[in-house]
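Entry 14. Ran structure prediction on the chain below.
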Amino acid sequence: MSSGMSRTELLRLVIHERPKFPDDTWKFPILADQVRVPDNETTYWCRVQRLPSILKQKHHILQFGPAIQRGNEHLVHHMEVFHCATSVNAIIPIYNGPCDSEDRPQTTQMCKKVLAAWAMGADEFVYPKEVGLSIGGEWFNQFVMLEVHYNNPEHIKGVIDSSGIEFYITKTLRKYDAGVIELGLEYIDKMAIPPHQESFELSGYCVSECTGMGLPQNGIFVFGSQLHTHLTGTKVRTRHIRDGQEISPLNYDNHYSTHFQEIRLLPVPVKILPGDSLITTCTYNTLDRRNITLGGFSISDEMCVNYIHYYPNARLEVCKSSISDNALRTYFRYMRDWENQQTDFDKAISTSYKNIEWTKSRVAALYDLYQAAPISMQCNESDGTRLPGLWDNVAVPHIKISQPPTVRKCPSTSVFHANNIDRLL
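Output, C-alpha cells:
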C-alpha cells in the first residue's frame, strides 16, 4: 500500500473541441541526450541540435507536450525549446551541456525565441483549429535548443535522463501563425520578497510604449496563457489596461500551485492593441523563509511570468520589467544612512538585501517603493535585441479606472434568510 499526495483538478470546463489533425501529421521529439544529471539542487541543461531536412519546408506545430523519461518525473521541473532565430545560413555549434558553462559557445546565446514551454503538472498543449506555430521554411534557421531545468534538492547522483518535448507537426498550414510573448518580471535579484510575509506582491509591467512598438497596427489575439512562479507563489494575475481603463483580466489564478502549471486556452481570444499595457502581479507567502527571497533561476529563488500564446506572430517576444537602478540605489542608501543597515548598491545587490534586518516598516517601505518607482523594461525581439525606444526609468502604467470586483452569481443573504423564514412560518 502506497501513500503520498497528488494534486488534481476537480473541475475543468471543456470549452474547446480537440481539432482533428491532418493525415500528414507526424511526431517529432526534441530530447536531451543521456544527460548525467548533476547532483546540484539546480541545473539548467542545454542541447543545441539541427532540425531534420524535411523542415526546410514550412510546417505548423499543432500540439506539444512533455516526453519525460520514466522515473525522472521528480527531477524535471520545466523545459523550453528555443529557435535560434538568426540568418538562415548561420551555423550554430552543436552543444550539449550546462547552460551556464564557460565552454558553451557564445553564438548559442541567440537561441532565445520560444517555440514551446512546459512546466510540472501541465498536460500537452493543443493549438486552436485556426492556429499553428510556424517551424521550418526557406528563411528559417535550422537550429533549435532544448533547455531542461533539473531540480535535485536531495542531491541524487547517477541519474541519466533523456527527457524533452514532443511535437505534432504538419505541412498542411492553418490560417494563422502563432507566437509567444513572455510577460512579468526579469529573473534578477533586483526584485525581492522579505521573509515572514503572509502575502507580498510583486508586479512586472509591459508598458504601452513597448506594445506600441512591438505589436502590429491591428493588434494580436491571445488564446492561451501559462502562469509561472516558483515555490512561494500563491496567486498570479495579468491585468489589461487600455487608455488608462482596466478591462477584463487576461488570466488569473487565486489558488496557484507551482506543481500544477498548465497552459490554459482562454474561453474567448483576447485582443491586445498597440498602446495597451499589461501588468502581471504575483503574490508570495514567505512565512517559512528566514531571509530574503530573490528573483532568479533556482527553485529557491522566485519568478513571476505569464507566457501568452497569440496570433498573428509579431516582433515582440519579451515584455518584462524590473525596478530601476536609480530607485533601488536610493532605497539602499536610505537603509544605510537612516536605518543603519549594511547596504550598498555598488556591491552585490543580493548581499545588501540579505543584510537588512526586516521590520514591518522596512518591509512596507520596500513594498511602497515597488509600487511607485520607475522601472527598467526588457522590450525585446526574439534574438534578445531591444526594440527602439528609451527603456530605462520608465513610469509604471497609471490606471485611471480600475476593474470592479466580479459579482458572484449567488442568492443574496437577505433573500436566503427571507426564503428560510417563509419555510419556517
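Confidence is low (pLDDT under 50) at residues 413-425. Will compare against last week's run tomorrow.
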